[in-house]
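Bench notes, afternoon.
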Amino acid sequence: MQFSINRQAFIKALNDVSRAISSRTTIPILTNIKIVLTQEELILTGSNSDISIETRIEQSDTGAQLIIKQPGGITLLATFFSNIVKNLPADDMTLSVDGVRASITSGASDFTINGQDVHNYPQLPEMDDVQSLSVSAAQLVDIISQTKISASTQESRPILTGIHLALNGNDVKAVTTDSHRLSQRIVTLTGTDAHVKADVIMPAKSFNELQSLLEGQDRVEIKLAANQAVFDLGNTTFYSRLLEGNYPETDRLIPTESTTQLTIEASALLGAINRASLLSHESRNNVVQLTLENGVVTLIGTSQEVGRVQEELVTKSVEGENLEISFNPDYVRDALRVFNGKAVDIKFTSNLRPFTLTPAGETDDKQLQLITPVRTF
């Protein structure tokens, strides 16, 4: 195998597929990057067995300046190879392969490194009974960014580490919960006439890596099978395994009525919580307290070791009964960031029941964050 290529174009492709490569894997060859050269294109693949990313650089891509001299393939240790390419001196580079030894030349620099046979690398998953749809990349980013915060990071309940997607026609409902908080986003897809009916759970970690690849994309082709999802981003294809099992019924967790409601700018509350957190993070339980009394809303952060902060909040409106409630400030801070500084309605039923945050004036729960309070007595 031998080819030459613009080094920056090659680095971008390396970075994309490296998102799927982990140093912690039970399959040693998956710490490598797979490089295959055909008569028309260069194909790079990275995988950690949960997700796989394949990107293609075509000879017709003038920016890449790909010159194919001899087709072939090899796998090379991903981190080591990437570091070499990023530190080469010239704007272009040449990769030549003889058996399982690769020679990388650029300017006056010449590296020779050992690789492994490309045929030992696992094949990308094959899919049966596929359902397909095309979605806006912007809508997909919206769904991911507004729900991933509540996915669990504890492997003790693997199903909660995923984003639950229920697709019905052009409507998508995405939900995550770690049993302490919940995020929900309901979107009607635009620009598609697909009528897919599916119920899948995709690891939040996979969605996190996918979100990084969606920048600059217009539309994404999605293929769903029983245990696999594939996202086609033009020259890059993203594969993710799906989680098996039944996701908890979350609709029953969302309160249908409230006794107290306040409307406030998300940015104003976020700033106050950041200040209260300076104290709560010094405390062992990391809790802040919100009090609503006769229309006055106060946020309090306390640490027995350090001190106390109290701040009266400027709200747009306060309605209902007086209330005193405690919560984890980090959960509320994550939830507020989703609303991009806009005004939010916060609805409470009691100091021990979950409360919700929604865009001000909206009542359809299409964009909802739910937080479980902390019992302090």
